[in-house]
Amino acid sequence: MTVAALIVAAGRGTRAAAGFSGAAPAKQYARLGDQPVLARACSAFLSHPSVAVVQVVIHPDDIATYSETVAKLPIAKLLAPINGGATRQASVLAGLEALAERQTP
After folding, report:
1. What is the domain range of residue 46?
2. CATH number for the domain including 83?
3. CA proximity to 29, closest of 44, 15, 9
4. CA nearest 8: which of 61, 87, 64, 67?
């Protein structure tokens, strides 16, 4: 059995923005200590020995920010990001479909 981690990070974080002053980043790119939240999530799954691949779903406008966020992470198990949809459900579905396509011979 192959274990995949799906990280849905396509949201805009509008509710979380209330805690920031000025222009707030989407919460997945906000710093928690010395790293963005998304980098911490990716690192946890990338370092887990049972996880074969990590698929991240992002907002289409965030590719540059995403690339900068994951630039220092080990990329052997990190798949290319998938664009999310208009809702969280659509983003989850996009990620699951991408993983399913990867498993198709």
Report:
1. 4-12+24-103
2. 3.90.550.10
3. 9
4. 87
Within 13 Å, how many C-alpha atoms sit on residue 19's CB side? Answer: 8
* CA 57 vs CA 5, 13, 21, 68, 102: distances in Å: 11, 14, 26, 15, 15
pLDDT tens across 65-79, in order? Answer: 999 999 999 999 999
Distance from C-alpha of 58 to C-alpha of 85, rounded to nearest angstrom: 9
The structure's pTM equals 0.89
Q: Is residue 80 part of a domain?
A: yes
Q: Enter the tokens of residue 52.
A: 């074969």
Please give the DSSP secondary-structure letter assigned to residue 18.
G
State the total domains in the chain. Answer: 1
- Across the range 12-39, mean pLDDT stands at 78
Q: How many CB atoms lie within 10 A of CB 92?
A: 16
Q: 71 lies in a domain? A: yes
- Extended strands (E) in 1-105: 4-9, 31-32, 35-36, 53-58, 82-83
33 assigned to some structural domain: yes
